[in-house]
Design a protein that fits this description.
single chain, alpha/beta, 10 helices
Amino acid sequence: MKKYDIVCIGRSSIDLYSNDIGEPFEKIRSFAAYVGGCPTNISVGTRRLGLNSAIMTGVGDDPVGAFILHFLNNEKVDTSFVVTKKGKRSSAVILGIEPPDKFPLVFYRDNCADIAITIDDMQKVPFERCKAILISGTGFSKEPSRSATLFAAEQANATNSKVVLDIDYRPDQWPDLQTFGTTIRSLLPYVDIVIGTSEEVKAAAHVGAGEVQVADSQVSNYRLEADQDAAVELILSKGPEVLVLKSGTEGSYIYQNGNSESEHAPGFPVDVQNVLGAGDAFASGFLYGYVQGWEWYRCARLGNACGAIVVTRHGCANFMPTMEEVEGFTAGKGGL
């Protein structure tokens, strides 16, 4: 019997969002304090939709850590696996909001608690009792989190728990693009589902300035700004069952291993206030459907709806929709 529908592993933070919508960063006068971090957002998003969700992260022995835990506990996300790291700090993000396409973002992750999680910490998670785990690319950016997150993927794979990777590429957390690509590809044999944007997929497939080896053993030129199909093919050749490409207002595209044609799930056009968190809302909806055994298209449509709702709101975790909100939003828009 699986106790947890999903355990989300990795980044957590306090997010400070500009209250001065449209103002350049240097003119911001005040911020609203929310909770964020890709896996943390997804733990809240899936919980609000109805899954039994847990979070495995690290927080500092500080007021910010208490802030994060207070919110998660109020959301009824299981925090049993959260570890407090003495001498480390809970991380922070500061965001400016200049719709429709400018959202300057600053990470504060020096001496970060969630990147200090270890294999010993990860052994608290009963992988055999999880239907799925969610890991993110940032968790592999530094040790000891890199080894701990790889351990989680290995253990989940060994106990028939599904492994979902959100690529979550944050360039300022990595020494270079080639290191990111090499690291991400090394864990793909343990992964069942990959979720990312076009740029993230290309980054994960990046080998260097020269070439990328594709699945049919042909060598083709590869640049980050091009060759999306080759990047998808390379990632799927490493073992994942499905790659889900998030494409904003276009919706999303589902690529299945062994199928050369993608399936398109249309999006829901809305007026954008803030794009940060939309991808995590998408993943929350998609994973809800996946755990419930839905077909891929319907999973993606729910993900699209969740993402569309969140881009009209001010923040991430605090603004994830409930299923009732999704049903109201999609009524008259083609449904799921």
